[in-house]
Amino acid sequence: MKKMILVDGNSLMYRAYFGMAHQANLTQNSKGLYTNAIYAFARMINTLVGRDYDNILVAFDAGKKTFRHEFQTDYKAGRSAMPDELRVQIAYIKEFLDIMRIKRYELPLYEADDIIGTLAKRAKEENYQVEIYSSDKDLLQLIDDNVKVILTRKGMSDLEVYTKESFYEKYQIHVNQFIDLKAMMGDKSDNLCGIPGIGEKKAVKYLIEYKDLNTIIEHAHEIKGADGEKIKNNIESALLCQKMATINCDSPIEVTIDDTVKHERNTDRLVEFYQELEFQSLLKEMSLKKVKDTDKDDYIVVSDPSKLNEILIPYSSLIFETPDYNYHKSPLLAIGIKNKMGNFILKPDMLYSSFDLQLFLEDENNHKSIFDYKRAYVLLKRLGYELRGVDFDLLLATYILNPSIAKEEFKIISDSYKYYDVYYDEAIYQKGAKKTIPSEEVYFAHINKKVTCLHTLKNDVIEKLTDRNQIHLLTEIEIPLSKVLGKMEHLGMKVDIDELNIQEKALNDRIEELQKLIYEISKVEFNIQSPKQLGAVLFEHLGLDCPKKTKSGYSTDIEVLESLRDKHEIIDLIIEYRQVTKLNSTYVAGLREQIYPDFKVHTIFQQALTQTGRLSSVEPNLQNIPIRTKEGHLVRKMFVPANQDNILFSADYSQIELRVLAHMADVKKLIEAFNTNEDIHSKTAKEVFGKTEITSEDRRRAKAVNFGIVYGISSYGLATDLGISNYEASNFIKKYMEIYPEIKVFMDDTIDSCKALGYVKTIKNRMRYIPDINSTVYQVREFAKRTAMNAPIQGSAADIMKIAMVNIDKEMEDRKLKSSMLLTVHDELVFEVYKEEEKIVEELVLRLMEGAVNLDVPLKADHSSGKNWYEVK
Q1: In 3D, which of 421, 414, 375, 419 has the Cα closest to residue 394?
Q2: CA nearest neighbour of 320 among 245, 383, 269, 277
Q3: Which of 81, 241, 777, 823 is a Cys-bridge partner for 192, taking CB atoms 3.0 to 4.6 Å apart?
């Protein structure tokens, strides 16, 4: 038997949009086009077409007016208007269906349900098995022996399949009674009243007893009490609702069954569509562009070292290829070179056999273009060579132009410039258990495509940076910083294994102790890390009230647990158990796996990731060690100098974001306070509370709002942080803005500018694009406003730290100091310092951090030292 799939296009489209929109997650491509609905819709359709079928059609509503409006003019009048963010995506959704060669259809004055009902009827007559996909229960009336209705709850991963049998099991009535059920219940979403006061339970009860609506009306006088009166008083409403809810299965559709026959998708056009919308994951999944051994471009594999001298010329583009993300471990496969002499591939052994190549790489005056300088720097440093003379980096340049699209995957970068002739690394090397290194011809071709792209794009990208006055960000900050970070990564940070063993045992002992206490109090043994089992213990076994539920059951997230702290003694133990187990698995036992043979960890600083310009780190993440808890802070004790006679020295900016805010907003009182070295939190507390003498609690509250205001904190957020009422918090913020009126002016001006331009800027002209600032969705728009207020401040602080790092490294190198910069964590820098250089490093670091830029307020850096990182901070 043949199978036909019929899809309610409007239903899936809305489901696709709101599935992400309710989380304020309206994704956009680099041009600002909203893409969340297109992406989710494409994913659902891709899942569908992977199934076995012969015919398929997607039906859409043709417009607001239908034949049903002739019977009820306010039909569907209560529905909210379609969000503009969804409206702009509809044309792309329909284009996607055309590319997939899936028939789509709409008919003026009729709804998608009518098209589906009519085509389902015709298909049944031709002995098809029909599957209908929608989230609209109205379509359940179409169920019969040959028709299933599949309701989508969450994309195509959570489906509710209805047959005649499962329908009866769910509703305890038959499918032919469903329209009468709707007639009695009504439908608020369609503005159909039905019989007010008769809900699903009562409607089912009377349908079981009387079989259909007409019989119920005939016997209304027998139905006692209020229900009988409601039915008698709303007969016309019920009959109208019955008429309106009935799907027209004889609509005058012009589409035929033959029109819906399955066709192969337009593969090439689909690739272009995904590229245009920047759907990288869908492109990867297609696996369309397979590299073949015969896929050879015009390049020469150079095997004779004596020929390198004529090839290695200035203004060459270089690709250093590794098969793995972690370049601290991954082998070098080959080097790709492109310049005016042509395209060349060098095998790794050329590094050792060619003195010309070594000199070329280390020549500061031999200009080179690259993709991800830091990666290449560390890779070569590991092999015993230095890479100098890099003055263009495509990864960093793209990150500056638009931080939202810059990723470390080369193809994502190239696609953003509409340069598509590059493969995904995953297509070449695969991933997981399937990961492998293919033949040389395959990865040579891959390298050559990358280096050709790099060389081709370079001049246009430089021109864009120059036009936007951002070239200095690349050449004076980001590229020099790459080398600094590369040196830090290569040097690594030593781990005291004995201390690690001590802490691991202490944490395991505490975990075991907490587990025993939790079992004793609950009087039941269970998996504490299982949300499902924990929820059952807390809210069923112990009888606590659950403040929040999810689709899968009880919520036991930290917000829920915090709200229950004073309800039961077990809650504090569970919170601590989670903290300690996470600390152990991530930063103690987890850290052990990251230690190299030199007893160091070599983290990877992600320079082109965050939209604020800040640095992050992975493998391991040394920036997220939770130092607010005693156990978390102790983790820092494991990090020690490589030389036991040395010390660790730390310097971190004091209140840098507040100082940047005072400068950027020209806040007179803050500028005065910083310039006179007054305690800014005490000053704020005195001003807000109108006191000359303040308490520690007053200062704590002032500190919360001082830092919170930088992030656009709301009264609710401040109330939560301080444990006060929303009213108190609102008054606090209002008073704060009266004391520092320039801040509100600055915030308002920043938002207005962002609305007009689509971006905000740091003091060094780093731009962050925030297209959501003009969203019609309130939550999305408000989040964008907070982002717009914070981004210039946090981004400027990041710029300052980067400038300081570059300047410090340069002077340390010029002075040939033996001490080294090891780590950066937000506003902190950590150094390993030789004893004879302690005073030199202290003076140098503080001077260059505090003199990184000139602001209207002084920059201030605090410092400390110790035998391990714990003693330092």
Answers
A1: 414
A2: 383
A3: 241
- Ranges in the chain, pLDDT < 70: 20-25, 67, 69-80, 189-191, 287-297, 406, 550-552
- Residue 214's identity, in one-letter code, is N
Angle at 234 between CA 232 and CA 238, to 5 degrees: 115
> Going by C-beta distance under 8 Å and a sequence separation of 6 or more, which residues neighbour residue 271?
283, 286, 288, 289, 420
- What is the DSSP code string of 658-692? HHHHHHHHT-HHHHHHHHTT--HHHHHHHHHHT-S
At 735, is the secondary structure helix, strand, or coil?
A: helix
Among the listed residues 390, 424, 392, 427, the one whose alpha carbon sits nearest the alpha carbon of residue 408: 424
Which residue is associated with the tokens 């036909």? 4
- 584 touches 511 (CB < 8 A): yes
User: CA-CA distances (angstroms) from residue 251 to 37, 71, 105?
Assistant: 29, 17, 13
The DSSP 8-state label assigned to residue 474 in this structure reads: I
Smallest CA-to-CA distance from 449 within 479, 474, 432, 428 is with: 428
pLDDT at position 288 is 43
836 to 635, 650, 841, 873: CA distances (angstroms): 28, 17, 10, 22
Specify the pairing of strand 334-339 against strand 342-346: antiparallel
Smallest CA-to-CA distance from 593 within 504, 502, 700 is with 504
The CA-based angle 412-417-422, given to 5 degrees, is 50
- Of 619, 616, 638, 617, the C-alpha closest to 627 is 638
Whether the Cβ atoms of residue 371 and residue 450 lie closer than 8 Å to each other:
yes
Q: Is 118 helix (H, G, I), strand (E, B) or coil?
A: helix
Kindly list the distances between the CA atom of residue 642 and the CA atoms of 496, 601, 635, 819, in Å, as whole numbers in the listed order. 10, 11, 17, 11
Q: How far apart are the first and last CA of the chain?
A: 73
CB 705 within 8 A of CB 717: no
Cα–Cα distances in angstroms (integers) from residue 671 to residues 762, 790, 800, 857, in the given order = 19, 19, 18, 6
Name the token pair of 231.
């039915």
CB proximity list for 501: less than 8 A, separation 6 or greater:
none
What single string gives the DSSP state of each residue in 454-468? HHHHHHHHHHHHHHT
What is residue 453's three-state secondary structure?
helix
What single-letter amino acid sits at 616?
S
Spatial separation of the C-alpha atoms in residues 821 and 376, rounded to whole Å: 20
Give yes or no for a cis peptide into 620 (omega within 30° of 0): yes
d(CA 442, CA 290): 10
CA 332 to chain centre: 31
For residue 694, give the 3-state DSSP assignment: coil
Locate 228 and state its tokens.
């009988």
How many angstroms separate the Cα of 775 from the Cα of each of 22, 269, 769, 790, 811? 13, 30, 14, 18, 47
Q: Considering the entire predicted model, what is its pTM?
A: 0.81
User: Counting beta carbons within 10 angstroms of the beta carbon of residue 23, is it exposed (0 to 12), middle (13 to 18) or buried (19 or more)?
Assistant: exposed
456: which residues sit within 8 A by CB, 6+ positions away?
419
Q: In the chain, what's the furthest Cα-to-Cα distance?
A: 106
Q: What are phi and psi of 176, to 5 degrees?
A: -70, -5
Residues facing residue 162 across a β-bridge:
149
List phi, psi (to 5°) of 335: -115, 130
Torsions phi, psi of 753, nearest 5? -65, -40
Query: Coil, helix or strand for 402?
Result: coil
pLDDT for the residue 293: 47
Residues 664 and 860: beta-carbon distance below 8 Å: no
Residue with tokens 């989670």: 578
